Amino acid sequence: MTDAVHDRLSRNLASGALTLALADIAEEAGRVILPFWRSDMAVQTKADESPVTLADQKAEALILQLLEGLYPGVQAVAEEQSEAQGKPDAAADWFWLIDPLDGTRGFVKGGEAFTVNIALVHQGAVVAGVVSAPATGLTWRSDAGSCREGKGASRRRFGEAWQPIRVRDRPREGLALLSHSVSDAEAERLAARHGCTRWQGTDSSLKFCLIAEGRFDAYPRSGPISEWDTAAGQAVLEAAGGRVLAENGQPLAYGKPGFVNGPFVAIGG
């Protein structure tokens, strides 16, 4: 990455122009994905037994092309590229984390809770991110400056104006979001551990966004998950006043060996 690209990246992060551009890219990727949704598409199985479709691959190729056009030379760590070519040995000072179609299992079944995730990481900390949900026509983004500064997050319906969002104060009976991959007993245990008396299952990075807009209170995760699954959602939630904490109580960091997260909890107010 040249000094000129670095300066433009920093300026656009500070002004909010970065995530405005990322939102457009994520929504364009969504338009690539939608024709494959609820269609008779072929599904392949990757080495980790997770599914992948042509929608994942085409959306990722578009995202990588557009990001390279805007900010040439910035390292990109993207799910399908990493699966096909291997993950980088180390993370650069600045790098993108990309999941072109988060929630592929639900997508294949015809569900609506799948997302496009694009995040920017600087020195191990996620600083900006966008999550777009093509099926429902909604996009969330961190606003101007690093999301760690908590300057605000926004949501828009495709083609409409951005509206500010904020986490809610924790109610007396908190409501948790859990992955569909956990058992009911494990979900109840995790929810109760984080002060929630009720829980609901959903797919993808939508969990972070629903907490960010004040509809839920916590998303605990006990099992491993890839960094590209969480980075964009973490950016939105932190910008909206929430937190995503690793087991050591520190904000979830990025560029770890294998680009894999351990247990964490995402929480609102």
Structure overview:
This protein is α+β, with helices and mostly antiparallel strands and 269 residues long. The protein has 2 domains: 3-165, Fructose-1,6-Bisphosphatase, Chain A, domain 1; 174-267, D-Maltodextrin-Binding Protein, domain 2. The protein has helices at 3-15, 17-33, 54-70, 79-85, 104-108, 184-193, 206-212, 227-239; strands spanning 43-45, 51-53, 75-78, 94-102, 115-122, 125-133, 138-142, 153-157, 163-165, 174-178, 196-201, 218-221, 225-226, 243-246, 260-261, 264-267. The strands form 5 sheets. Strands 3-4-5-6-7-8-9 form a 7-stranded mixed sheet, with helices on both faces. A 3-stranded antiparallel sheet has the order 12-16-14, with helices on one face. Strand 6 (125-133) and strand 7 (138-142) form a beta hairpin. The model has no long low-confidence stretch (mean pLDDT 92).
Question: How is the topology of this model organized?
Answer:
Layout lengths: L2 H13 L1 H17 L9 E3 L5 E3 H17 L4 E4 H7 L8 E9 L1 H5 L6 E8 L2 E9 L4 E5 L10 E5 L5 E3 L8 E5 L5 H10 L2 E6 L4 H7 L5 E4 L3 E2 H13 L3 E4 L13 E2 L2 E4 L2
Parallel strand pairs: 3-4, 10-11
Antiparallel strand pairs: 1-2, 4-5, 5-6, 6-7, 7-8, 8-9, 12-16, 13-15, 14-16
